[in-house]
Amino acid sequence: MRLATLLRSGSAVWAALLLIGGLLFFSTGNTGGGIEYWESVTAQSTGLLGVISAVCGAGAAWEATRLKRGAVSTWAPSRGPLRIAAEQLAPMALLGLAGVLISLAIFSDAALLDIPGRPNLTVLAVGYSVVLSHIALGFLLGGVLPRLLGPPLMLILGYFWGFWPAALAEPAWLRHLNGQGIGECCRLDQVPAPRSLGATALFSATVITVALILIAARQGKARLVLPMAVAVTGVAASIAVAFPLGLDGEHNRDQSLLRCSGSGSGSAPQVCLWPEQYEHEDDFVRWSKEAGDKLRKAGLTPVERVEFSWRVPDRETVLIVTATSLLPSGPPACALEPGETYPGSEAASALDAWLAQVVGVEPAASSGSDEAAQLAQKVRAMPAEAQKAWFQRNLRSVLDCSQKPELSPSSYTRAARAGS
Asked: Within 13 A of 33's CA, how many CA atoms are on the CB side?
């Protein structure tokens, strides 16, 4: 049958209208928050797979219902069941592909055209496999369920399978089977995890294979043996691939792409940038050097190397990140033990604010709470040696759960006076 005839007589037109409406609705307020980085944009576009899969699955179920009502299976067998299914589902497959590409376009930005790289084709292909699995399942269910039950069931099933697993903390591996495991990827130093993509592709391939076997098989109990074996094996393999990931759907990016340059005169910190940041290298280096100079003036030694997680720099953020790189990126291991108290959390906020002010960032723009910024201002009014002592003392409480912080500036002022 000609494609034009299929489009005119089938469900593709109403499904397209439903798909466009769904994509516009679910994308509202969920775009524009990602990094201008192709891996990030492509991964986040998978957040709309639930809409695309649900609509295409419902359309496929409708096509199967139409064939069932027309008793096509009782006609003279000039075409096999798989060929009939392929012809009837071609418009849905094209609509699903269009949906994947439209989703990418929704999350893309004009600035990406000037950025190195391209959309991650593997992510797009895996996302499309999710759509195809819903189309195959929808066609299967539409052919066996009572009249008109298949399309609404696939809408509901596709919606919940597309969005529900990502809302669960446990089991974490479940989100990697429906394509949502990479939905929050990626920072500039990350790419989508191959295991997550592999688990999704394997699960989708299992659903498609089982559906094709059942569509092509003749009636009889024996026809259930092979699809059940394929289903059990495929699902078990998918879970085995996804299980080690937990909630993490990211993978470290190739470090050879990271280009590092000194901040001048051989002094630290060394600034390391990803290809998307290369065009702004001068700004990153200049402001990082400015922060390093101010830290040394305060008696502190900057870190040897600093990286930044956004593409376009601004002075205040570069200053803050360079300065606060002196602090650990998270609480120590002892703070993560069950029932363990971490007195250093208050100190970490105060040290963040103080370091930001040391490099010249105004208290209102520095990180941390208002209380931390006000405390940092009081510390900045102390003599340089007293400030350094305050920093070193409270840094120990950040690194060691057994060390209680001593944040009061008056303690260090009295000690400085006693020493003099």
From this structure: 11
Judgement on whether residues 333 and 298 belong to the same structural domain of the protein: no
| Same domain, residue pair 172 and 307 | no
Closest CA to 231 of 263, 209, 198, 251: 209
Residues 81 and 209 in one domain: yes
Where do we find the tokens 């208290």?
363
Summarize pLDDT for 82-116 with one digit per residue, the tens.
888 888 888 999 999 999 999 999 888 766 777 88
Angle at 272 between CA 269 and CA 273, to 5 degrees: 145
* Domain containing residue 87: 3-253
- Locate 12 and state its tokens: 């593709």
Residue 414, pLDDT score: 60
Number of domains in the chain: 3
* 249-258: pLDDT as tens digits: 899 999 999 9
Half-sphere CA count of 104, side-chain side, radius 13 A = 20
Q: Mean pLDDT per 10-residue run, the chain (420 residues)?
A: 56 81 76 75 91 93 80 58 84 93 87 82 96 94 84 90 85 91 89 95 96 77 80 95 89 90 66 92 92 90 90 91 88 72 81 90 66 86 87 87 81 57
- The H or E element spanning position 160 is helix 150-163
In this structure, the strands spanning 305-307 and 270-273 are parallel
Q: Give yes or no: residues 20 and 137 share one domain.
A: yes
Predicted TM-score (pTM) of the model is 0.83
Of 54, 285, 274, nearest to 154 by C-alpha is 54
Among 304, 326, 348, identify where a domain stops.
326
In sequence order, which residues have a C-beta less than 8 Å from that of residue 55 and are 6 or more positions away? 15, 18, 19, 22, 95, 99, 155, 158
